[in-house]
Amino acid sequence: AKAGGRRTFRFFEPSMDENARARLQLQQDLRRAIAEGQFELHYQPLLGFSSNVMTGCEALLRWRHPERGMVPPLDFIPLAEDTGLINEIGDWVMRTACAEAASWPSNIRIAVNVSPVQLKSPTLALRIAGALAAAGLPPERLEVEITEAVLISDDDVALGILHQLHDMGVRIALDDFGTGYSSLSYLKRFPFDKIKIDRCFVSDISAGSSSAIVQAVVSIAAASNMTTTAEGVETGAQQSALRELGCTEMQGYLFSAPKPAAELHKLFATEAAA
Ligand code: C2E
Ligand code: CA
Ligand code: CA
Ligand code: CA
User: Fold this and answer.
1) Sign of CA dihedral 205, 210, 215, 217
2) How many Cα atoms are found within 13 Å in the side-chain-facing hemisphere of 127?
3) Predicted confidence band of residue 14 (pLDDT cuts 50, 70, 90)
4) Ligand 1 first shell, C-beta below 6 A
5) Would you say 175 and 145 are in contact if contact means Cβ atoms under 8 Å apart?
6) 265 confidence band (pLDDT: 50, 70, 90)
7) In what residue span(s) does the EAL domain sit (predicted)?
8) What percentage of the chain exceeds 70 in pLDDT?
9) Which of 8, 105, 150, 203 is the most buried (most CB within 10 A)?
10) Are strands 109-113 and 142-146 parallel, antiparallel or unpaired?
């Protein structure tokens, strides 16, 4: 019976083992990526609807893995969050994005994604202030994007950090709006300047329900002094529907995919010439 038990144990073990090993490997690889500078940022333009001019860029993290090539953020950010490595990675993202943005035209903002895990660290606002100062970037040119998960956690530390940042002049955007479980009452408690409407509402904007949701978000935003950005705009039809509904800004492949910093300067030049 003992041998059989062991056999049963062995029968189930390999896949779990494999999983744990893959996770551990990824974790080691992540530490090495930080130490060896394997991360880079790509930037995706945000465009104002009224004038079609670029108002900012969102920094999106890329990992150039030595063996696996480009690893998409959603394949490693969850593990980075579980292990706390996101704090170190997030600090790198913030410093790099602010330094890069300091060389852009002064009307172009930089939007940086901040994980709910980073918002548990009471020194975050101080570290962001440090990144801004080191880059010589005015706080008004930084926008942090946070997801609804932060709201649900009902976390006073997160709320405090967001107020500190907002008081410094940093803008706060609520990312992926409509995908989480937050209630509208949170919009009043948190100092949001902007709501980013998730791609899922944009992709089927021609459907009545999505269009009604976008319309509702736009009016809530307007009534509370917030702007709205539509994410994942891919077609001209989506663009006109969103303009019609009164969205402030758009972002998506229709105008530009995320690009390395070097290619961005060409877009700035085109804008300036236009
Ligand atoms: P997100 O913040 O919602 O970013 C938008 C995602 O949509 C990006 O995916 C972007 O490349 C993609 N996208 C932009 N326009 C279009 C479009 O027209 N169509 C489609 N289908 N997709 C579009 P990406 O770069 O793979 O990033 C995925 C997520 O990873 C981000 O979602 C964000 O939650 C997270 N992330 C990326 N960089 C960072 C970072 O530096 N820190 C943290 N904490 N999270 C990050
Ligand atoms: Ca975002
Ligand atoms: Ca988003
Ligand atoms: Ca998203």
Assistant:
1) negative
2) 18
3) low
4) 44, 59-61, 72-74, 77, 90, 93, 113, 115, 175-176, 199, 232-234, 252-253, 258
5) yes
6) confident
7) 23-272
8) 92
9) 150
10) parallel
| The two structure tokens encoding residue 163 | 């107020």
Q: What is the DSSP letter of 198?
A: P
Dist. CA 60 → ligand 1 center (Å): 6
Contact at 8 Å (CB) between 58 and 5?
Answer: no
Tokens read off for 45: 């333009």
Ligand 1 atom index nearest CA of 253: 18
ipTM: 0.98
pLDDT for residue 51: 81
Contacts of residue 186, Cβ cutoff 8 Å, sequence gap at least 6: 148, 151
CB 49 within 8 A of CB 248: yes
Structure tokens at 53: 């001019």
Predicted pLDDT of residue 10: 54
Is the Cβ–Cβ distance between 228 and 201 less than 8 Å? no
How distant, in Å, are the alpha carbons of 71, 87, 170, 263 from that of 60? 12, 16, 19, 14
Which residues sit opposite 148 in a β-bridge? none
Distance CA 6, CA 14 (A): 13
Residue with the two structure tokens 């918002």: 119
Q: List, in sequence order, every beta strand (DSSP E) within the chain.
A: 39-48, 54-65, 69-71, 109-113, 142-146, 171-177, 194-197, 227-230, 249-250, 259-260
266: pLDDT strictly greater than 90: no
Neighbours of ion ligand 3 (CB under 5 A): 175-176, 231
Question: Contact, 137 vs 101, CB < 8 A?
Answer: yes
